[in-house]
Each structure stands twice: as structure tokens, then as C-alpha cells.
């Protein structure tokens, strides 16, 4: 093969140099076009992101928007990477074209999938549910507040008397937070006359732990020590010093704490029974004649026609207010034990009648009954008690009395028959009945 001359070598060298320059210019042009394409793609991505964010609900908040934007950016970056690889594959040499294309990026071994529309939909659905719950709570709160203040406006008509316990709390007294003791006092007077006697004394104990309401009658002939006045029957305590002295007497003799009292006279009792439409009581024929005697006495006091409200025979009867009062005052059939039992029967029937009444009827009952009541319970406390009464209606009701069976004996003091009580046994019995 002939050797090339120096001139030919120079021509070949220059040709190769020109070829390299052409290839270099091509490569620079390719890089420039690539950068322009990536720049345009980046602008398109930013515009798409801004449009997606603007379409989100305003109440999704910035954290949710940022989360969607971040996912959208990651998605678009993956798409751009795929397109860049495709572009390099088409512009590289034949050797590079023969290489296998790399598989798309994977996250934890799984192909990345775009689920932004699903995420937004789930977030939106959860947000709507939460918003409905909030609105429901707001509406219930407003309704409860309106009911609370409505009831409070009704109970403000009660005759309020503060219970000031100026005496030292007796040693060993029973008191628990889950028990509320309210003393019901039925006097044989009218209005706020404290000189009248306490004809009925029933301790109503609401035990929120055992879900029970225990009604304990205290017999009026019980022989007790009245603080500052010596020993005599317990109903004299009310006659001497009203409800405060009666409560002190019960606390010191029976070692049980009393939180409040509610006091009604005979005529208020009649109004309360009539307001609920009467009470159903199983009356014997023997009891009818004594009921009529008391009804006749009430007719005389109220200038009602003679014979008004008389019963003709016994049976399961719906008694009016004055008939129910006559029934609860019977003392000539059986002993005072049976008398207090009748009082608890009437009270239980009254509670059952209120329980079966609708809300509108209960509101009417409150409006009529409240002015006839004298109590140490404040308006706010009374309102809460009434609201909780819906819960208390589900409690079991139990009856109890003091003195308990086989814990007493008859004695005569100043020519008057009274009940000598075994205080130790009765105190322990009260503890079990009320607090367990």
C-alpha cells in the first residue's frame, strides 16, 4: 500500500477535525434543545400543579394542599424522568439504542400509582362527616341550654329556704358522694307555718352507684333526743324548730347526713296529685269509709259541697288529690307502720304517674307544683335534679322504714305511747339499705 504524502495526511487530519467540530456542534445543539425542553416541561408542571391546587376546596387547609402538591410533584418528576430516558434513547448511538431500557422506578417493590383524586375524595368525605357531627353537637348544646334555662325559670317559683347547719357534724355520720339524701316533710299545716307538726317524714335516697331510689319512712312516734329539748317523739322537732331542727335530730340520732329537704302541706299535696291526673291505688272496702271521713273534713275546710269526692266501694281506683290524702292519713286500720306504708304507696304511684307523662305534661306539672313547694334546694340544683329525673326513672325503687322490724318496743311517756328504738341496729340497717 502506497504511503500517503504529507499533503494527503494534512487533508485527512483537517477532514477529521472538521468532522469532530460538526459532531461537537450537534451534541451542543442536542443539549441546548434538551434544556429548553426540560425548562418548558417544568413550566407546564408548575402550571398544572397550581391549577390542581386551585381546584381543591378552601376548607381543606394548607397542610392538605401541600400534601397533594408534593405527591403531584413526585408524580410529574417520575413522568419527566421517563420522557428524558426515552429522548436519550432516540438520540444516542446505535450501541446505546441496543441497550435494554431501564424499568420504571419502583417504590418498595411496587409500581408508583397516582391516587390523588381518591385521596381528595376520602378527605372530603371525612371532612363532611366531621362537619355534620360538629353542627349536631352545636344544635344539641343550644337545645339543652334552652331547656335548662326554661326549667330554671319554672323552678325559680319555689319557696327557697337555705339550710344552715350551724351545729357540729355528729361523729360517725354516714355520707357518700354517690348518695343524695332529701327529706320530704308533709306538714298538717298550710303555707310556711312552722308551728305545725310533721305528719309525714320520708327520706328519699338517690344512690347513683347501685342505681336505686330508697324511700325510708320515719315514724312520727319514734322516741328520740331532740338537741336542746330533751327526749320526746320525733315529730315535735319540726313543731319546735322547723326543718333545720328536724334534720339535726335525724342526723344526731340515726347518723345519716341529709343534704336537703322538700316541704309540702296538705293542700299542696292535693294540688300535686290533681295536677298529674290522680294516682292509682288499690283500696279496700274498709279503707273507703275512713277516706270519706278525711274527704269530708277537707270539703269543710275548702267550702266544697258535702259528699264531694266520696267513694262508694273499694278496688283499684284512680284517686283524686283529696282522696289520696285521705288514704295516706288513715291511722285507724292497723298501726302507724301501715300508715307510713300507705304514704310510700302514694308517693310511688305519684312518681309512676309522672314517669308516664310526656315532656309537655311534665312541664305543666312543674309549673303548677313548684309554687306549692318550700325547699332548701337552689334553683340551679333543682334544675339539674329535674333534668336527671329522666335517668332516675330507670332506677329501682325500694321501700324502707325506721324503726325496722324487731328493733323497737312500745313505751309510755307522759301518758303518751311512743316507740323505743334500738338505735345501733337501725343505724346499721340504714347504712346497708342506703349506701350498699
Topology:
Blueprint: H1 6-55, H2 61-91, H3 94-98, E1 106-107, E2 110-111, H4 116-155, E3 159-160, E4 179-187, E5 198-207, E6 212-218, E7 223-226, E8 230-233, H5 235-254, E9 260-265, H6 266-275, E10 279-283, H7 285-302, E11 315-319, H8 321-329, H9 336-355, H10 359-369, E12 374-375, H11 379-392, E13 396-402, E14 408-413, E15 416-421, H12 423-435
Parallel strand pairs: 3-12, 4-9, 6-13
Antiparallel strand pairs: 1-2, 4-5, 5-6, 7-8, 9-12, 10-11, 14-15
Keywords:
436 residues; alpha+beta; Aminopeptidase; 2 domains; seven-stranded mixed beta sheet; two-stranded antiparallel sheet; 12 helices; 15 strands; 18% strand; elongated
The level-1 CATH class of the largest domain = Alpha Beta
Structural class: alpha+beta
From the alpha carbons, calculate the radius of gyration and give it in angstroms: 46 Å
Helical percentage? 55-70%
Question: How many structural domains in the coordinates?
Answer: 2
- How many strands? 15
Work out the strand percent: 15-25%
CATH architecture group name of the largest domain: 3-Layer(aba) Sandwich
Order of strands, main sheet, comes to 3-12-9-4-5-6-13
Largest sheet: 7 strands, mixed
What is the 3D shape? elongated
The CATH topology name of the largest domain reads Aminopeptidase
* Straight-line distance between termini: 125 Å
Query: What is the H/E order?
Result: HHHEEHEEEEEEHEHEHEHHHEHEEEH
Number of helices: 12
The CATH superfamily of the largest domain is: LCP protein
Amino acid at each position: 500500500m502506497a504511503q500517503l504524502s504529507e499533503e494527503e495526511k494534512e487533508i485527512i487530519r483537517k477532514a477529521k477535525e472538521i468532522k469532530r467540530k460538526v459532531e461537537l456542534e450537534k451534541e451542543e445543539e442536542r443539549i441546548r434543545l434538551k434544556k429548553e425542553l426540560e425548562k418548558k416541561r417544568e413550566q407546564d408542571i408548575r402550571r398544572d400543579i397550581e391549577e390542581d391546587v386551585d381546584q381543591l376546596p378552601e376548607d381543606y387547609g394548607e397542610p392538605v394542599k401541600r400534601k397533594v402538591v408534593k405527591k403531584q410533584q413526585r408524580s410529574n418528576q417520575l413522568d419527566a424522568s421517563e420522557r428524558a430516558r426515552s429522548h436519550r434513547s432516540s438520540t444516542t448511538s446505535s450501541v446505546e439504542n441496543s441497550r435494554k431500557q431501564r424499568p420504571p422506578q419502583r417504590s418498595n417493590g411496587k409500581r408508583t400509582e397516582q391516587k390523588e383524586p381518591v385521596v381528595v375524595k376520602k378527605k372530603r368525605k371525612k371532612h363532611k362527616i366531621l362537619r355534620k357531627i360538629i353542627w349536631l353537637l352545636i344544635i344539641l348544646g343550644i337545645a339543652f341550654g334552652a331547656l335548662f334555662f326554661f326549667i330554671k325559670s319554672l323552678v325559680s317559683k319555689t319557696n327557697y329556704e337555705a339550710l344552715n347547719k350551724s351545729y357540729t357534724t355528729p361523729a360517725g355520720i354516714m355520707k357518700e358522694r354517690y348518695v343524695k339524701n332529701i327529706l320530704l316533710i308533709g306538714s298538717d299545716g298550710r303555707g310556711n307555718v312552722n308551728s305545725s307538726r310533721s305528719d309525714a317524714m320520708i327520706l328519699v335516697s338517690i344512690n347513683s352507684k347501685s342505681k336505686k331510689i330508697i324511700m325510708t319512712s320515719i315514724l312520727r312516734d319514734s322516741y328520740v333526743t331532740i338537741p336542746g329539748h330533751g327526749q320526746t317523739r320525733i315529730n315535735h322537732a319540726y313543731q319546735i324548730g322547723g326543718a333545720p331542727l328536724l334534720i339535726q335530730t335525724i342526723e344526731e340520732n340515726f347518723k345519716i347526713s341529709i343534704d336537703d329537704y322538700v316541704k309540702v302541706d296538705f293542700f299542696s299535696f292535693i294540688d300535686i296529685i290533681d295536677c298529674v291526673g290522680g294516682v292509682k291505688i288499690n283500696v279496700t272496702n274498709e279503707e273507703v269509709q275512713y277516706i270519706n271521713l278525711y274527704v269530708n273534713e277537707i270539703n269543710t275546710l275548702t267550702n266544697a259541697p258535702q259528699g264531694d269526692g266520696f267513694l262508694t266501694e273499694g278496688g283499684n281506683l284512680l284517686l283524686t288529690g283529696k282522696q289520696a290524702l285521705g288514704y295516706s292519713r288513715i291511722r285507724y286500720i292497723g298501726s302507724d307502720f301501715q300508715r307510713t306504708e300507705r304514704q310510700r304507696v302514694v308517693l310511688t304511684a305519684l312518681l309512676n304517674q309522672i314517669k308516664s307523662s310526656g315532656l309537655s305534661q311534665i312541664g305543666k306539672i312543674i309549673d303548677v307544683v313548684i309554687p306549692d313547694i318550700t325547699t332548701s334546694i337552689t334553683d340551679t340544683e333543682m334544675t339539674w335534679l329535674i333534668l336527671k329525673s329522666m335517668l332516675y326513672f330507670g332506677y329501682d325503687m325500694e321501700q324502707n322504714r325506721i324503726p325496722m322490724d324487731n328493733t323497737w318496743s312500745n313505751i309510755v311517756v307522759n301518758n303518751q305511747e311512743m316507740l323505743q328504738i334500738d338505735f345501733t341496729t337501725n343505724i346499721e340497717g340504714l347504712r346497708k339499705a342506703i349506701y350498699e
